Amino acid sequence: MTPKGEGPFPTARDDAELAKPSVDRPQTQSSAYRLAFKDEEFLLRDDLRPVRFQLELLKPELLLKEQGIHSTIAVFGSARITDRETAERHLADAETAARADPGNADLAHQVGVARRKVANARYYDEARRLGEIVSATCLADGGCDFVVLTGGGPGIMEAANRGATDAGAKTIGLNIVLPMEQAPNPYVTPELSFRFHYFALRKMHFLSRAKALVVFPGGFGTLDEMFEAATLVQTRKIERIPFLLFGKEYWERVINFDAMVGEGMIAAADKDLFQFVETAEEAWHHIAQFWNLPAIEPAKAD
């Protein structure tokens, strides 16, 4: 008897098994004879891009539902920010190299960058702490709300996923294929470690369940994600949610929002899309206040 799927029809898996050629002929060897959904060469054609878009939208959506993920806290930030121990080790190496060649301007520059990375290591600590606070608070309430979601890579992403893992919670990583070799950080829940080809679909999943957006200092990738979300909030394509920027001094030095207002490029009220925070406790205070969740007394900034 033919195995059945839902209703009277066999499942696609069953048909794929039945479709294995029992006769070796030129006709059965041709790619035209393969079932379309089993034909990788066909699926990777340029004409099939809309289908691949749909698959990248649908696969994470279905798996997140299966894992019971109701909502997320999306955390963005630099992959180049490390924990303090690593940053201090790189600084020591840079200083050693500079002392060996005191006239080398490039080595002197590298020492300056390494010192900034030691200072910026505090953001790794705050991202890890925030991941733990968010996850521990929501675990206490049961369910899978406010699940920490990152790009799944190193740096700030690793730190936030690590904090959630410290709390014993599920945590999501949305990795993407890049020309340089990279892999998901080891703190992402394996069943929630996704990989994307299309940046656009990855961005949709960053925002589709987000109940807060938290942005740590970062470079082009972080700015891309930040301004994409800001545009959607500004134009009311998505509902207003907490939109937190860690490190006021960094953001006001890197982006001159007041100049944009003065030039008439944004409205003065658009600056209120963001709130600056300095600590994980302060960030959670804003999120908890917005969603009527258990609060933690915000830590005072240094």
| Count of β-strands | 7
Main pleated-sheet profile: 7 strands, parallel
Which sequence of SSEs, written as H and E, runs from N to C? HHHHEHHEHEEHEHEHHEH
- Mean pLDDT comes to 92
Structural class: alpha/beta
Over the alpha carbons, how many angstroms does the gyration radius reach?
A: 24 Å
Q: What percent of the residues sit in helical stretches (DSSP H or I)?
A: 40-55%
- Separation, N- and C-terminal Cα atoms: 72 Å
Strand content: 5-15%
Poorly predicted spans? 298-302
Q: Outline, from the CA principal axes?
A: globular
User: What strand line-up does the widest sheet have?
Assistant: 4-3-2-1-5-6-7
Describe the structure.
This protein is of the alpha/beta class and 302 residues long. It is 49% helix and 11% strand. The chain is built from twelve helices and seven strands. The chain has a seven-stranded parallel beta sheet with strand order 4-3-2-1-5-6-7, sandwiched between helices. The chain starts with 11 loop residues before the first helix and ends in an 11-residue tail after the last helix. Residues 298-302 have low confidence and may be disordered.
Write the layout of secondary structure elements.
Layout: H1 12-18, H2 26-29, H3 40-43, H4 49-66, E1 72-76, H5 84-100, H6 105-141, E2 147-150, H7 156-166, E3 171-176, E4 193-196, H8 199-208, E5 210-215, H9 220-234, E6 243-246, H10 248-254, H11 257-262, E7 275-277, H12 280-291
Parallel strand pairs: 1-2, 1-5, 2-3, 3-4, 5-6, 6-7
Helix pairs in contact: 4-8, 5-6, 6-7, 6-12
